[in-house]
Amino acid sequence: MTDLSASPAAAPVRASSSLLTLDARVRRRNAAEARFRGYGFAAILLALLALVWLLYSIFSAGLPAFRQTVIQIPVTLDAAQLDKAGNRNPDEMAKASTVTYGKVLSEALKAAVAQNGIVIEGLDDKEIAGMLSQEAPAMLRRDVLANPALLGQTITFQAYATGRVDGYYKGRVTLDSATRDSNVTPEQLHLADALKEKGLLSTSFNSGFLTMPDASDKRPEAAGLGIAILGSAYMMVVVLVLSLPIGVAASIYLEEFAPKNRWTDLIEVNIANLAAVPSIVFGILGLAIFINMAGLPQSAPIVGGLVLTLMTLPRIIIPTRAALKAVPPSIRDAALGVGASKMQSIFHHVLPLAAPGILTGMIIGLAQALGETAPLLLIGMVAFVREFPAAPPSGLFDPAAALPVQVYNWTQRGDPGFVERASGAIIVLLVFLLIMNTLAIILRRRFERRW
Amino acid sequence: MKFIHITASALAIAAAATAANARDQIQIAGSSTVLPYATIVAEAFGENTDFATPVVEGGGSGAGRKKLCEGVGENTIDIANSSSRIKQSDIDLCAQNGVKEIMEVRIGYDGIVFASDINGPDFALTPVDVYNALAAQVVKDGKLVANPAKQWKDVNDKLAAQDILVFVPGTKHGTREVFDTKLLVKGCEETGAHDLFLAASTGADEEAKKKDAEKACMALRTDGASVDIDGDYTETLSRIDANKNAVGVFGLSFYENNTDKLKVATIDGIVPSVESISKGEYPVSRPLYFYVKKAHIGVIPGLKEYIQFFVSDEMAGPDGPLAQYGLVSDPELKATQAAVEAETPMGPLK
To answer: What is the per-residue pLDDT across A23-45, written as a single tens digit (0 to 9) for each?
Structure first.
């Protein structure tokens, strides 16, 4: 700067102005800078607003899914009705179907209503029975079959209320909308209020949303994410087990051993291209290879895992190679210099130093795979599955769902109760992604070394 | 070396698992209209029997039938749900892939309804109104002209003065087929447009001319008054929510579950309901089917039991859970039950 102002050409311009008064050119430049800052700030603000709006809409729609209205009723389990053979043999007791249990429950509710002196005008028996979820008899039946000793006793049973009664306490259903709704009547809602006053009806945390399987359109209140979470976990295990060794081996070979020639160039370009291929293409590939050619079962986590592995591999190889490249050559040279073999230098020195970077890439790749929906649509993962898959390895071949496709599946259902469930599932998915990304950041912060 | 050992044993375990893992649950795919019914039955079947709950997939009627016809074996599906009758091309494909015997099971009927926002005006439609509101070409003074109607009032004096905007299911939906034949073609014939199309057709023979005319009858206007919805009914519902002037085409069961948001239109003065459809009064309805691969009965555990359970009076009967959800039960259910009992495969298409 000093020699510039000292130069004879600049001297006449500067001569009239001091450094403290800004001339027109400087003012223009300063204004341009201020505008540019403003644009940047506005862009960030817009992005933040979009994020806040997205989170607000998901959370306001989805948080109610984590709460569930239950009706507590004392139920007398009449042995004569539920175990006609009378020998407490679960195989024979299974003959009493959910219809029978449904009758037991609605009788019990009717008795409870009468006992508490609740009188609602215009409320008939069918409407009282219609307060309970159709899942409730199935739950009671499961409980009784698992523990035949319950027969003859009077137990306090926590029965799910139907989706509409549940929605009443979540603001989804109002007395006004109930008059037009063919699935609920205002009298039922009055009864719900009366039951709540007596302490028989309450809304509390719904652990079933995370543990129970999917349910049909007639019982949205019972639909849960149990199988979807398990299916996603199985797929992630497959992806991890396959893509970690393959991805790391491929990266080490390409980075440390491969000669630099036309072939390796071609491979490098192709890995970069594969990482950018739309994921649905891998779904078509998976359908053709794993299901039609190899004969693996449909809707199975193993196929989902294999497809996602194909998709994730290039996305893991790229950061892994970057991590290996970041280890300075002096480390390798030093190892080779004290007599280590090439393999020893890599496994004893380079790989441990690159590990945090590799793990970070791996976790981010897994997080991407976890949220991937498109390829799973093609291999039959968008299915109604109610049986939990067995423990691995055989469970990998059982039908299961996955978190993102469960969201997709629920948004297509007719009952409004599923809108809430779908948003709830999005929250669960976001929490998992957040955990994985946080883990990646922590690993990077704590273990990454810079040279 | 250790790594190779582990990989090899992992592969061996995986292979053993596939071999030992004979499929023990029924697999179903197909129509998204039949899907809710199939899930309701599957759920109850799993709860009340010793068999596993069947796995039910959507995907559309055509896709389901194609999957059924992929061949025989454990990695092919057992049942295809379908909201329209199987086609000769499907049967040919099946035969080609070794699927010789298929059982056809009709589970009941589904109504197709027009519905609009709950706070909007009432609609009382007829096939003629629908045709005049939505067709690309309509009859005016004995001649075919491009559809000039802007408001429902232009179509029929008794209708509201509201812009015409109808969300129609896309062509991949089975619902569209019924909409086309039961409303558009019927309205086309009643207004006389069909005869004019027939006269204007340049087809080679009578048959080709008829086809031409029918196709022209089904052509919808493209000026934005009719919008194809390729998604499902939830999309149509949210579009109506955003545009309160619109009328949507829904399945009866979907409407029945959303009566607090939608108002249904009458067709020919008949309010669509399970009763009016089962009596045959409401004109726009269609049968729903599923198709069973007979070669899998006895191989996949519980397959026959599932079919029997599906068509039993407790499920598909007029008081069953399916009717509660909006299925119009089949008056000939007894015959279907007998056919299922005897495992009668379907004959050639008529």
So the answer is: 889 899 999 999 999 999 999 99
As a whole number of angstroms, the distance between CA B154 and CA B149 comes to 5
Residue A42 pLDDT: 97
Probe site for chain B from A127, A142, A177, A216 (most B CB atoms < 10 A) = A216
Give the residue ranges of DSSP H helices in chain B: 2-20, 35-48, 61-68, 88-96, 127-134, 152-155, 174-179, 186-191, 193-200, 206-218, 233-242, 252-256, 274-278, 303-311, 313-316, 321-325, 333-341
- Which class in CATH covers the domain with range B2-109+286-341? alpha beta
The neighbour count for residue A28, using CB atoms within 10 Å, is 11
Q: Which two tokens stand for residue A382?
A: 């968008």
Host domain of residue A117: 66-206
Residues 376-435 (A) with a CB less than 8 A from some CB of B: 380, 382-387, 393-394, 396-399, 411-416
HEC string of B256-296 equals HCCCCCEEECEECCECCCHHHHHCCCCCCEEEEEEEEEHHH
Q: Give the whole-angstrom CA distance, residue A170 versus residue A220.
A: 14
B121-243: CATH class? alpha beta
- Contact of A286 with A306, CB cutoff 8 Å: yes
A81 SS3 class: helix
Residues in chain B with pLDDT values less than 70 = 1-22, 172, 350
Token pair of A273 as six digits? 């291209």
- Nearest C-alpha neighbor of B79 from the set B89, B69, B91, B90: B69
pLDDT at A228 over 80: yes
Q: In this structure, are A366 and A259 located in the same domain? A: yes
What pLDDT, on the 0 to 100 scale, is given for residue A213?
A: 93
Domain locations along chain B? 2-109+286-341, 121-243
Q: What is the DSSP letter of B180?
A: I
Same domain, A380 and A283: yes
Q: Is residue A313 part of a domain?
A: yes
For B:216-235, CB contacts with A below 8 A are 232-234
Give me the pLDDT at residue B20, please.
Answer: 42
Asked whether B183 and B265 are in contact (CB, 8 A), the reply is: no
User: Same domain, yes or no, for A259 and A321?
Assistant: yes
Query: Structure pTM?
Result: 0.84
First-to-last C-alpha distance (Å) of chain B = 66
**Residue range A42-86, pLDDT digits in tens:** 999 999 999 999 999 999 999 999 999 999 999 988 888 888 777
Token digits of residue B147: 């559809």
Is B88 in CB contact (< 8 Å) with chain A?
A: no
**Which of A213, A262, A247, A403 is closest to A318 using CA atoms?**
A247
Confidence check on the interface: ipTM exceeds 0.85, yes or no = no
Per the CB < 8 A criterion, the answer to whether A223 and A418 are in contact is yes
Rounded to the nearest angstrom, the gap between the alpha carbon of residue B140 and the centroid of all alpha carbons in its chain is: 34
